[in-house]
Amino acid sequence: MATNTGGLGTPPSYEVSVRGLIRSFGPKGVLNGVDLDIAPGEFVALLGPSGCGKSTLLRALAGLDRDVRGSGVVKVPEQVSVVFQDSRLLPWDSVLGNVTLGLRDHDADARGRRALAEVGLAGREKAWPHELSGGEQQRVALARSLVREPRLLLADEPFGALDALTRLKMHALLKELVAAHQPAVLLVTHDVDEAITLADRVIVLQDGRVALERVAGAGVDHYSLRGELLAALGVHAAA
Amino acid sequence: MTTTAARRSTTVTAPPFGGGHGTHPGTVVEPHLDPNLSTRPDIRPSSRRLGPGRRRRFAGLVGPAALILLWVAASATGLLDPRILSEPWTVVSTAGELIADGRLQENLAISAQRAGLGLFFGIVVGAVLAVLSGLSRVGESLIDGPVQIKRAIPGLALIPLLILWFGIDETMKVLTITLGVFVPIYLQTHAGLRGIDLRYVELAQTVGLSRAGFIRRVVLPGALPGFFLGLRFAVTGAWVSLVVVEQINSTSGIGYMMELARTYGQTNIIVLGLAVYGVLGLLSDAAVRLLERKALSWQRTLAG
Questions:
Q1: What burial class does residue A27 get, using C-beta atoms within 10 Å of its C-beta: 0-12 exposed, 13-18 middle, 19+ buried?
Q2: How would you label B267-291 residue by residue, b for 16+ Cβ within 10 Å and e otherwise?
Q3: Residue B47 pLDDT more than 70?
Q4: Which of A93, B80, B124, B174 is the most exposed place for a label (fewest CB within 10 A)?
Q5: Which of residues 63-92 of A touch B (CB under 8 A)?
Q6: Is B55 a domain residue?
Q7: Separate counts of helices (H) and strands (E) for chain A
Q8: Which one, of A8, A37, A35, A10, lies nearest residue A201 by Cα?
Q9: CATH of the domain at B226
Q10: Chain B contact set for A101 (CB, 8 A)
């Protein structure tokens, strides 16, 4: 569906291209030579145990690691949006003000309203962030990233702090939004089911390296993929 | 479970050190007596709130009013010698006389002007210095040290030098107040600014905010709670500095009026001056708090 459609002979043009990425805090390497390509519109989920470097990789792509030691080549598009685990809304700004933060065009407000309507929050433009539920706050954060029409959407465990039911609703919403806006997506998560449900491709990061890479999505046997990913993460499900 | 009647009797006098089986003073649990539902008393523990409860209008006036009542009572019963502290009604009639011949308004106007000007300049200087020092390392190394030194020097100690430099006219008075005001504004705004969550700085980077946009949308609103805390100190400080400059060398103002009264032993005028300072302090603090509530309505706090 949204995988690389470049035919034979034409070199594939990737939205994201990472080569030999190395990052270290102190003597211990966090990323030890990561290679990663993401095609335009492709949804990649990044799995891995805590401390495997998945957030560090995402921060490198977001340009948030300027004071970190390391090397490697990172090619990302101009328009990158980030969704954090916390909604990270400015508490002193209205919902609409948060969505349009940093937009400089004249129709920023109109676009912000449309984005809020898209995430099902029409009419809440003037509310303060603390007046919203956790799920609603995260929807505002989604609206804030998508109003910028990003070519790449980086999401760092965006649903990690939500309850299970809200999380399922957010999965459906994210799928819908990604289908409508077609950004390339890198979703960092530790939820194997979330990765399988949402992504076209799942990558397992271990000790700062890509340990496993599998195609997910339609036509893939969820159950066996789930077992394989869990095994790669060191969890051996009882037969 | 205590009965309602027993509980009511304990609501006025709070047991010392929160004793009395943990009953919270001021909360009365009404038993559930709807016969259709149940005849057992409703024993919801949820009725005990930990917050201070709802805000009530004019609640801030209760304390000052009680103080005045105490004064009236002590004077009326003769407990308070009028040579020590004038009776409230004498002070009221003195106020009437001074208003009739225009002296009170005149002195009040000049005092308010001095305090207002000093406050204005102090707020501007303190806030600008705080932003400069909070946002750049160079600014901090240049500004923070001298402000801390100024903080350690009492305002009174500077007056001889200020008189030598600026004479005894209005400039010296306003400057003294400004110097007293800018320090708390600087300290609290700077602390508020430095306390802004780094996560918001990251956010500003990812949404591509410009430097100016970052200051306007993140830094200034984030530092506002600190600024208002500083403002409340500053307003009080402005009145204190005012008393100092007006009682040391002045030919006008409330402080001068009181100093003159001291020479003639007119306790009633001195007490009137004190009352005026008190009312001014109370009113200005209420004004700042009102402003704070309006400007910080995004906050969810116990203050409500």
A1: exposed
A2: bbbbbbbebbbeebeeebbeebeee
A3: no
A4: B124
A5: 63-64, 80-82, 84, 86, 88, 90-92
A6: no
A7: 7, 9
A8: A37
A9: 1.10.3720.10
A10: 203-204, 207, 209, 217
Domain annotation covers residue B73: no
Report the pLDDT averaged over residues A28-51: 90
pLDDT band at A42 (very low <50, low <70, confident <90, very high): very high
CB atoms A128 and B298 under 8 Å: yes
Residue B99 forms part of a structural domain: no
What CA–CA distances, in Å, run from B123 to B117, B176, B219? Answer: 10, 14, 17
ipTM of the complex: 0.86
Q: How confident is the model at residue B48 (pLDDT cuts 50, 70, 90)?
A: low
Q: What is the pLDDT of residue B105?
A: 92
How many other CB atoms sit within 10 Å of the CB of residue A11?
A: 6
Averaged pLDDT, B185-205: 93
Most A CBs within 10 A among B206, B217, B219, B294, hence the mutation to make, goes to B206
pLDDT tens, A74-90?
898 989 999 999 999 99
Question: Given A86, A92, A129, which is nearest B221 (Cβ)?
Answer: A92
pLDDT confidence of residue B44: 55
Task: Give yes or no for residue A148 having a pLDDT over 60.
Answer: yes
CB–CB contact A64 B202 (8 Å): yes
Question: pLDDT band at residue B76, thresholds of 50, 70 and 90?
Answer: very high
Query: In this predicted model, which residue has the larger pLDDT, B36 or A120?
Result: A120
Residue B254, domain member (yes or no): yes
Which residue in the set B202, B207, B300 is minimally distant from A101, CB to CB?
A: B207
- What is the CATH class of A1-14+25-79+150-239? alpha beta
List the single residue in B218, B297, B299 with the smallest CB-CB distance to A90: B218
Is A92 in contact with B205 (Cβ distance < 8 A)? no
Chain B residue numbers with beta carbons less than 8 Å from the beta carbon of A127 are none
Min distance A182 CA to chain B CA atoms (Å): 19
Half-sphere exposure of A16 (CA within 13 A, CB side): 27
Q: Domain spans of chain A? A: 1-14+25-79+150-239, 89-149
pLDDT in tens, B213-245: 999 999 999 999 999 999 999 998 898 888 888
Structural domains of chain B, count? 1
B211 touches chain A (CB under 8 A): no
C-alpha to C-alpha distance for B133 and B144, rounded to whole angstroms: 7
> A137: which chain B residues are within 8 Å (Cβ-Cβ)?
none
